[in-house]
Design brief:
- By secondary structure, the chain is α+β, with helices and mostly antiparallel strands.
- The chain has one domain.
- It is 31% helix and 26% strand.
- It has three helices and five strands.
- Strands 1, 2, 3, 4 and 5 form a five-stranded antiparallel β-sheet that branches.
- A hairpin with a 4-residue loop joins β4 and β5.
Length: 89
C-alpha cells in the first residue's frame, strides 16, 4: 500500500514526520481534506487564511494541496471547491 506524507505550510513548512498509508491518491486527498477541516475548526479565518495541507509521496513529490478551512462558518460550494483546488502557497 502506498504511503503519503501530510505537511502543514504557511510559507514555512511544518513537516509531518511519518508517512500515512492510503490505498490510493484519492484516499490521501480525502484524508487531507479532513485534516484541513479539523485544523480549521473553531479558528477565525484570519488565523488560518494562509495555512495549507500539502500531500507528498514518500520521495517528497507534491501531489495535492488544500487550504485549511473552517467549515463551522457558512461556506458556499464554490468556496469549498476553490479550497480543494488551491494551487498557491
Amino acid at each position: 500500500m502506498p504511503s503519503f506524507v501530510f505537511h502543514l505550510t504557511n510559507g514555512d513548512t511544518f513537516p509531518d514526520d511519518r508517512a500515512t498509508p492510503c490505498r490510493t491518491l484519492e484516499e490521501a486527498k480525502t484524508f487531507a481534506l479532513g485534516v484541513a477541516a479539523e485544523l480549521g475548526r473553531n479558528r477565525p479565518s484570519n488565523e488560518i487564511e494562509h495555512l495549507v495541507v500539502c500531500v507528498t509521496d514518500e520521495s517528497g513529490n507534491e501531489l495535492f494541496r488544500t487550504k485549511v478551512v473552517n467549515l463551522q462558518h457558512p461556506t458556499t460550494a464554490d468556496e469549498m471547491v476553490s479550497a480543494a483546488r488551491f494551487k498557491g502557497s
